[in-house]
Amino acid sequence: MREGWHGWDDYAPFYDWENAQTVQRRDVGFWQRLATRTGGPVLELGCGTGRVSLPLARTAEVVVGVDRSGEMLARARRRLRRSRYGSRVQLVRGDIRALPFKDPAPFRLALAPYGILQSLLRDRDLEATLRSVAAVLESGGTFGIDLVPELPDWREYRRRVSLRGRRGRRGPRLTLIESVRQDRARRITTFDQEFVEHGGAARSRRRFSIAFRTLSMRQMRNRLERSGFEIEAVLGDYRGRPWDARADAWILLARRR
């Protein structure tokens, strides 16, 4: 069976370009405010290229980012070297289902931004991750989770041009050609992506797939509670408004018992 981490090494060269046009930075301020309120050290699951970890370092003195993709982490390290806050961020290559920390409960806050838990395609993987997070959070520590709710609602299509633009002001032109497949019985949405890079007369293509599994809010709450967490808040956007089933974002804040 396909694993949720498959495809992310291939995605790394295009991740920041695509996210600059989609999610942008609209969630970053929320995580910064949460880190200010709860204190640190802060753990980010699936830190990728440092899109969230580095801005968090402006408000937390210690941020530890974990990711399985070496290609993603290589880009994060380059970003840290250019930043005045880079010394506050530690990057660790590891599996979020078995976090590689020996000290008991070293973190005050753990984050799972922008649907990272939806990359866990089996229930046993999600449950292992929740137990692993509970083991590294101090008693009373906060676990913040951001889910992308609309994934199951995407209609299937084949080879649609989803995005076009330049990589930087003078960089090559990129085109994203995308297909969507739905496995509704397993609640899995798969994106087959083809990035075409145009540089003068040259053209290159990179093809890969990434998959996400979406549970209902009730199911996520139940799994958190079974793993040793109490639900503190359920929010519907990054400004802290209450959640409902039509909300743009599904944000859970849970406290470790």
Your description of this structure?
There is one protein chain. With 257 residues, this protein is an alpha/beta fold. The protein has two domains: 8-149 and 216-256, Rossmann fold (3-Layer(aba) Sandwich); 151-212. It has helices spanning 8-21, 28-38, 53-56, 70-81, 123-136, 217-226, and strands at residues 42-45, 63-67, 89-93, 107-112, 137-147, 157-166, 173-183, 188-199, 202-213, 229-235, 250-256. The strands form two sheets. It has a seven-stranded mixed sheet, sandwiched between helices. Helix 5 links the parallel strand 4 (107-112) and strand 5 (137-147). The relative contact order is 0.16.
Task: Label this structure with key terms.
11 strands; Rossmann fold; 257 residues; four-stranded antiparallel sheet; 2 domains; alpha/beta
Q: How many β-strand stretches?
A: 11
Strand order of the largest sheet: 3-2-1-4-5-11-10
Individual helix count = 6
Mean pLDDT: 94
Percentage of β-strand residues: 35-45%
From the N-terminal CA to the C-terminal CA, the straight-line distance is 34 Å
SS-derived structural category = alpha/beta
User: How would you sum up the global shape?
Assistant: globular
Look up the CATH topology of the largest domain: Rossmann fold
**Gyration radius, rounded:** 18 Å
Q: Could you say what the CATH architecture of the largest domain is?
A: 3-Layer(aba) Sandwich
Low-confidence spans: pLDDT under 50, at least 5 residues? Answer: none
Q: Specify the biggest β-sheet.
A: 7 strands, mixed
Q: Which CATH class of the largest domain applies here?
A: Alpha Beta
The percentage helix is 25-40%
What number of structural domains do the residues give?
2
Which series of helices and strands comes N to C? Answer: HHEHEHEEHEEEEEHEE
